[in-house]
Structures are given as structure tokens and as C-alpha cells.
Design brief:
The chain is mainly beta and about 160 residues long. It has strands at about 5, 10, 20-30, 40, 50-60, 70-80, 85-95, 105-110, 115-125, 130-140, 145-155. This is Dirigent protein.
Length: about 160
């Protein structure tokens, strides 16, 4: 392995094994009521262009009452379209339970139509050096709750500490 050393750095050529995981999760966005999991922090009336909301959406492994809490999608979303129909999202999916507990994925993209894609632009823990894509589809929109099915395709390189 070739390397270069300086007073404060070392550069080495490495070969790292990459892994892929595919998973399906469900994010619950509760916009109103006692259990809402987002809050508008920069309001504008009527709701539309320029509104910013913080979110701590819950993420489950299914949609029914027996679904397990996997983690939380914590970040923000911003209405960045003049017509008020598209929201830009930036959040960390933090795994609190299960196989990937203690790891996270960093996602960004837009929520607009009922279906779309978000980019995976990083991760921590087991998901170090993550990249990939999440295809989302709205599966429920009722009583102030939106549920989206998230189909992940994640490429990552686990690093040993």
C-alpha cells in the first residue's frame, strides 16, 4: 500500500469493501392534534412559500398496530415553491431500535407529489460513507396524518473504530 506522510497528515491508498442494504420503512408525519410531530418555526399566512417547519417524524417497520418503532426522521422541511406544493426536506434518519440502533442516514430531497425520490448523502455508525436513494410513496393521508412508504437502497462502507 502506497502512502505519503507529512507533519500533520498521512495519505494512504485503501480498498474498502462496500455493502448494500435494501429495506422498506414507513414514516409517520402527524401535522395536527395532540400527537403532532412537527412544528412550524417560520410561519407565513396563508401556509405556503417560505414556511419552515421542524420535524421529528416517527419511522416504523410497518403500518399496522403491530409495527415496531425503528427510529425518527429529525430535521426540517421548507416550502420552497412559489405555488406552495413542493417542500424541500433535510433530515437525519436516526435508528433507535433494532439491527441498526445507533446509526443514522442523512437524507434530502423534495416532498410534492404522492411519489418521488430522496437522496441519501451520508451516514454514521454502520452506515458510514453511505450513499443511495429512497423511493417514497404516500400510502395514507387522513386525519392530519400522512404515512409514506420508504424503499431504501443504501450503499455503505462500515468502518472499524
Amino acid at each position: 500500500m502506497a502512502s505519503e506522510k507529512g507533519a500533520y497528515f498521512e495519505i494512504s491508498t485503501v480498498t474498502m469493501p462496500q455493502k448494500e442494504v435494501r429495506m422498506t420503512l414507513y414514516v409517520h408525519q402527524v401535522v395536527s392534534g395532540a400527537k403532532k410531530n412537527q412544528q412550524v418555526v417560520v410561519p407565513k399566512q396563508p401556509i405556503g412559500f417560505g414556511v419552515i417547519a421542524a420535524n421529528d417524524w416517527t419511522v416504523f417497520d410497518g403500518t399496522g398496530t403491530g409495527a415496531n418503532l425503528v427510529g425518527n426522521a429529525r430535521g426540517m422541511h421548507l416550502c420552497g415553491a412559489m405555488n406552495g406544493e413542493t417542500w424541500n426536506i433535510y433530515f437525519d434518519l436516526i435508528f433507535n431500535n433494532g439491527r441498526f440502533k445507533g446509526s443514522s442516514l442523512k437524507l434530502l430531497g423534495s416532498i410534492g407529489p404522492a411519489e418521488g425520490e430522496w437522496a441519501i448523502v451520508g451516514g454514521t455508525g454502520e452506515f458510514s460513507l453511505a450513499q443511495g436513494v429512497v423511493a417514497y410513496k404516500k400510502v395514507q393521508d387522513s386525519d392530519g396524518t400522512n404515512i409514506r412508504e420508504l424503499k431504501f437502497r443504501v450503499f455503505y462502507t462500515p468502518l472499524k473504530a
